[in-house]
Amino acid sequence: MTDGNIEMHIDPARAQQLCNNFSAVLSRVKSASSTSQAPIRLVAVSKLKPANDVLALHREPHHQLHFGENYQQELLQKSQLLPREIRWHFIGALQTNKCKPLAEQIPNLWCVESVDTVKKADQLEKGRHALCEKDKQYEAEPLRIFVQVNTSGEEEKSGVEPKDAIALCQHVRDQCPNLKLQGIMTIGAIARSKGVSEGKENEDFVTLRNVRDQVAKDLGLGQEQLELSMGMSEDFESAIQCGSNEVRVGSTIFGERPNKAEAKIKENNEEGKS
């Protein structure tokens, strides 16, 4: 397949492995969901994996649309290689000075999930506005924003304190016309996820749910108007059971990641062309 005059080869064996992994995750998502829940959005986190892997899941039989990336430059490169209909999620730590180019340079950036300051929101707003000025077709499609909340209290984790989430959510909603407040997200403590016994809820996920409920109340929104993005490979089933609307799954689909220095944006695989 080609996109933007760049040829992409898919190894059939690798594609089958990815499809099998993805199907297994979809089945687990469905099993963890209650019959009353809306469909759960599954974001396939392709961090440090080649664009070939993304393309393998984007085509038949899954036609996956939502992919997540942690590094801005990697996302930019992949977005230029891959079909425009892919919906990219930026889920990594975000530097303020990188926000404007991120929102401006990637037209199919669907969502930024790691907003934890007013300055970052404002720079994303400027970038999206600049994109709309260059191409009016994007005016009808605001950039979605999840406000990241540090629910675990870990110093190394990004995110606003739970008590500060309301002010940031209100700023995004009221002061950033080219952004859309999609919801709030967290990265729970892995130790807590592994230590949750059957029938119990992860306290990080409970905290985020409570924050969402308070934000919705204070902003005059229905709870269904603010999504929860929580749950990764180790704990996505627990997150769904706590009410998550979106889970971000990487290694369970794509396998263990290489070191960043060894990662390839595109595999030059000449066998099994497709």
Q: Which structural traits does this protein have?
A:
10 helices, eight-stranded parallel β-sheet, TIM Barrel, 274 residues, globular, two-stranded antiparallel ribbon
Reconstruct the topology from this structure.
Blueprint lengths: L1 E2 L2 E2 L4 H21 L8 E5 L5 H8 L7 E4 L2 H10 L5 E4 L5 H10 L3 E7 L2 H17 L8 E6 L16 H11 L3 E7 L4 H6 L7 H16 L8 E3 L6 H6 L4 E4 L1 H4 L20
Parallel strand pairs: 3-4, 3-10, 4-5, 5-6, 6-7, 7-8, 8-9
Antiparallel strand pairs: 1-2
Helix pairs in contact: 4-5
Question: How would you explain this protein's 3D organization?
Answer:
Helix 4 runs parallel beside helix 5 (118-134). Strands 9-8-7-6-5-4-3-10 form an eight-stranded parallel sheet. It is an alpha/beta fold. It is globular and about 50 Å long. The chain has a single domain (40-254), classed as TIM Barrel. The chain has helices at residues 12-32, 51-58, 72-81, 96-105, 118-134, 165-175, 190-195, 203-218, 236-241, 251-254, and strands spanning 2-3, 6-7, 41-45, 66-69, 87-90, 109-115, 143-148, 179-185, 227-229, 246-249. Strand 1 (2-3) and strand 2 (6-7) form a beta hairpin.
